[in-house]
Structure formats: structure tokens, C-alpha cells
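FORM 7B: Structural annotation worksheet

SECTION A. Query
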Amino acid sequence: MSISMETQAVAASPAVATVLPRIEDPGKVAPKDARALGALFFEQLQVLEEGTREYQYARNTLIEMNVSLVHFAAKRFRNRGNGEMEDIVQVGTIGLIKAIDRFELSREVEFTSFAVPYIVGEIKRFFRDSTWAVHVPRRLQELRVTLAKAKEELAAQIGRDATVAELADHLNIDEEEVIEGLIASNGYTAGSLDLPVGTSQDSAETVTYGDIKGDDDPALELIENLHALAPLIETLDEREREILAMRFGQEMTQAQIGEHLGISQMHVSRLLARTLTKLRNEMLTQN
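SECTION B. Predicted structure
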């Protein structure tokens, strides 16, 4: 590990300045040192303005310091061949970045324990989507890759999965073409879950495709529900929409909402229950 005596002064707020060490080669930081430094850098991310040079330094340093977690997780998949290991590390790094962006020190859990499931999850999805099971035109195969990249970019910008309309606008293509590309993705990976793909690094047991296959994304059903809810939410009054936005958009607690609106937590609970019941009944009526 090479950490110079030179430091970087970062303005955490107009009244507070935090000093981060200048790490010359974050990739060589020992795991023990990475844990200690990680707490400092994560704390800084909470107060720095996103998009600033100081924020990018803190975030990029955390990525480089923890990239060894990606290589550690990737080892269990290396029997798929050296030609794919670079791809595995790349998609695993996407999981690492997601973990860094979502980690909070208040969770009181080691970052390594928090990050590994994200990394492994991305790698599993990579293998789930790595082989076409039916013949699909190359145009749609390429479109699927383009859509996957666009979804990642938009998710980073807007903090949620992009809609078909948003993907179409981002790629400057028709919504019908986006839908066609998403449907074509279903032509991936059909085979026995018992298909052996190697052996475990920890034992002599055979690892099957079912052991590494990713699960269906539970957010898909949520997206469908959100599409159906959108016009119903528009019929709510301004206060009801504000409470929904604070509770589910900003993930504020009922107590925080009550403090913001100047009402009791019990009152917030009643208003929230009434609004959700109204939306639920209207959803059932539509169905």
C-alpha cells in the first residue's frame, strides 16, 4: 500500500472540512487497511455533493480498494474458461459499484458482507443471459446488449429501472422496437439445471448450472404495478401524493414525514393507510 503524506482537503459542508488521504495505488491497499479507510471514505460520500471531483475521488478509490472482492467472487466461476474471466470480472465490478452506491455506515454491517451478494448476483445474471437458446436475428441480439447498457445508465441517473418509453427516448428508437428487444431476451439459456459446469473450489462436489443460475428479477412485477398505478396516483390530491413520495420515493419513516408536515406519526399512518386502500381498491376495480 502506498499512501503519501499529501492529503486532499474536501469541503463536507460550508462549515466543516474533512481530509481524505491521497492513496497512490488503491488496488494495493491491504484488506485490513481497506476496512479502516473504507469507513472514512464512505462517511465522506454521505456529505459530498454527487458529481464533484472530490466525490468521484472518494467513490473511485472505494471501487479500486475493493475490486479484490470481485476477483474473490469470480474464482468460483473460473471453470467456464479463461476467455470469459475478463467479462466475469467486469460484470462483477458492476455489482461492486451498486453495493458502494447503496451502502450506508448506519447499517452496522461489514461492507464485504454487504457487497458480495451484489457481486455474485451480477455474475449469476451474466451467466443466465450469456447463451442464446433459440435462433434470434443478430439485430435483436445486438439490441439486447444496447438495451442492457441503456438500462444501467438510466438506472444510475434516475435511481430506478427505466420504463419502455424512457429507454426508447434515450436510444432514439420506437417503443415497439424496445419491446421487441426485451421479448427477444427470452431466447436466452434453455437447458437442464442439473448440467455440470465444474467443481467447487471448497470441496470435490460438482457444481451444476442450477447452483449459479440467477433468479427472476422480482422488480419486474413491481414495474408492471407502477405502470398501472401511475394514472391512479394522478387522481390523488397534492397531500396524498406528497406523502406517498416521501414514504416510498424518499424512503422516509412515518415519524420523519410527520415532522416534515407538522402532524403526528399516527396521523401519517392513518393518511397513508387510507391512500393505499384507495389505490388498492381502484386497482382491483380495473382488474
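SECTION C. Observations
Confidence is low (pLDDT under 50) at residues 1-17. The first strand starts at residue 3 and ends at 13.

SECTION D. Sign-off
Analyst initials: ____
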